[in-house]
Amino acid sequence: MFTVAALYHFTRFEDPAALKAPLAKLACSQGVKGSLLLAREGINGTIAGPRAGIDAVLAHIRALPGCAGLIWKESAAEEMPFGRMKVRLKREIVTMGEPDVDPCAAVGHYVEPAEWNALISAPDVVVIDTRNDYEVEIGTFEGAIEPKTRSFREFPEWWKENAGRFHNKRVAMFCTGGIRCEKSTNYLLSQGVEEVFHLRGGILKYLEEVPEAESLWQGDCFVFDGRVSLRHGLVQGDYDSCHACRRPLSAADKLHPEFEPGVSCHRCLGEYSDADRARFRERERQMRLAAERGATHLGAPHLPQD
């Protein structure tokens, strides 16, 4: 059994490049895999590994400048959900493309999972899912508004086009682990929205703490690793993913005539060239051969969280 830790922390790193190599070296030495993003605004990512390895990496991160208050969310995986360890430098740890947004300056009101149902059931509250369309597709909160964005960078424009719909409403926002809401609530405050709320710990914390019998969550929660989705109690769901576009696939989706394992699904068939699909077929062949040898193939990259 592997421990999976999802984390983010906004702080000011003067030289994030200097943090990259020591963090990657430690993670690899501890058998930890996953993806961590470093930027001047902080750190974000998900890692998986043995208990001792995860503890060592988390201790290292908490010792970084301004990270003593790091909070993370844990779950479990029967198989390693990542093929390798990646530590990357980025302009933003979650890309919104709004240079004036600063979660360290101000964010919305945090709402604990136990209090979330009452808030989003109030008649004067509008609930907005800040995640991307492929995530929302497999699960969301009852009555939530879906912006239908393909990336988080599209959210500010969506808000400008739709803000009038929410006049005189309190706004409650949520995402997978909370990081997008740190930025989106700061953005809404800058746009003059007075009452903005967000789910502390995101959907993952809600699914961990709120009993299924009392839940307003419908479906699965998409996660950015090999498990693809989680359910109440953070139990792994039944979704697979398309190795071409990485979107989640149900059992019914894989019966679609345009689904070809490792090459395409009915959503992405028109998004890639013949040359791309030929490359995907070769990758799938190499993965199959590796499996037959009992070896591990890195496979396709996971969807970015932007």
Describe what this molecule looks like in 3D:
Helix 6 (179-190) links the parallel strand 9 and strand 10. This protein has a five-stranded mixed beta sheet with strand order 4-1-3-2-5, covered by helices on one side. A four-stranded parallel beta sheet has the order 6-10-9-7. The protein is built from eight helices and 15 strands. The chain has helices spanning 17-29, 51-62, 113-120, 133-136, 155-162, 179-190, 202-209, 274-293; strands at 2-10, 33-39, 42-49, 71-77, 85-89, 109-111, 125-129, 139-141, 170-174, 196-199, 217-219, 221-222, 229-230, 240-241, 248-249. It has 306 residues and is α/β, with parallel strands linked by helices.
| Mean pLDDT score | 93
Sheet of most strands: 5 strands, mixed
Q: Can you tell me the CATH topology of the largest domain? A: Oxidized Rhodanese, domain 1
Neighbour order of strands in the largest sheet? 4-1-3-2-5
Number of strands: 15
The number of helical elements comes to 8
**CATH class annotation of the largest domain:** Alpha Beta
Radius of gyration: 20 Å
